[in-house]
Prior knowledge:
Radius of gyration: 18 Å
Oligomer: single chain
Structural class: mainly alpha
Amino acid sequence: xxxxxxxAPLNPDQTLTVPPGVADQVxxxxxxxxxxxVADSDEEKGWNQLxxxxxxxxxAESDAIYDELPSG
Length: 72
């Protein structure tokens, strides 16, 4: 199963709009499975930002050499 991820606000009519770049990756008529993840609060967003910031503190410029490795 292929996973496509995007963020979207809930429209006033309680629908979601799939961005065109994502929709283009789904063949017409294909059934999709939808999973909604809603942040509980601004506190959760703060923890997520802190976690990311702490993670990237461990990144050094010398690690950039790994960005040049061929994928595959």
